[in-house]
Design brief:
Layout lengths: L3 E2 L4 E6 L4 H15 L3 E6 L13 H5 L5 H19 L2 E4 L13 H11 L4 E7 L4 H10 L7 E5 L3 H5 L8 E3 L3 H13 L4 H4 L3 H11 L2 E4 L2
Parallel strand pairs: 1-7, 2-3, 2-5, 3-4, 5-6
Antiparallel strand pairs: 6-8, 7-8
Helix pairs in contact: 1-3, 1-7, 3-7
Length: 217
């Protein structure tokens, strides 16, 4: 992974959950936004804020009693994190693997395509170990011909330890942008306990591999 790249113009980062984009590409998003790019963070599995269903295992470990409480709080966190990175958050009401999805694959694909009508679309692409990430990748990999890129997912890439394939580019970012990424992660307070200490593994991995990574179209 030797080449350098930057996000420019209209960019939609498709995030499975309400933190994946910031953890994976927060510094690159910050750099792009400061340079005038229009970055949208589109979270597909942002949950249903009105749900009274009992919280699933992950949400319960985060301190939530219901699925709706988790969705409301996590959307608030995501809004603030995106503000710190200079991105615009967009949330779809589908649900992660703790719950029933809340829509068919065809419906979800159509909603994402409606929300990402122009520009570069970045999807989760490596190492695809989380089932929600793999599902979303497979669902959308061919939905945006000619303008689809893929990003290395954190903290999963750091836990995996492998470098992305050689054709992937390093998304350069400065110290200011890395600090903004860390500040964005701190906003996701509800996730700190279940995720554990992930900032140092991510930092070490990105120092070793050259930074955040993407496969550009």
């Amino acid at each position: 992974m030797r080449t350098k790249a930057a996000l420019q113009g209209d960019v939609v980062v498709v995030s499975p959950h309400l933190d994946d984009a910031a953890l994976s590409l927060g510094a690159a998003i910050s750099r792009a936004a400061r340079a005038g790019a229009r970055v949208t963070v589109l979270t597909v599995l942002a949950g249903d804020p009105g749900s009274n269903e009992p919280a699933g295992d992950w949400d319960r470990s985060s301190g939530f009693a219901t699925a709706g409480e988790a969705a409301r709080t996590r959307r608030e966190e995501d809004a603030l994190a995106c503000e710190r990175l200079g991105a615009r958050p967009v949330w779809l009401p589908y649900r992660d693997d703790q719950y029933e999805r809340g829509g068919t694959d065809d419906e979800i694909r159509a909603r994402v395509r409606e929300a990402a009508v122009t520009g570069l679309v970045l999807l989760p692409g490596f190492p695809l170990e989380h089932p929600d990430h793999r599902w979303l990748h497979d669902l959308l990999a061919n939905a945006f011909p000619g303008r689809t890129g893929f990003y290395a997912e954190q903290p999963y890439a750091a836990f995996d330890g492998r470098r992305p394939p050689g054709s992937w580019a390093c998304l350069g970012a400065g110290l200011r942008d890395r600090r903004r990424k860390l500040a964005a992660y701190r906003v996701y307070a509800s996730q700190h306990e279940p995720l554990g200490r992930i900032t140092w593994p991510i930092l070490r991995y990105e120092l070793r591999t050259g930074g955040e990574a993407a496969l550009m179209p």
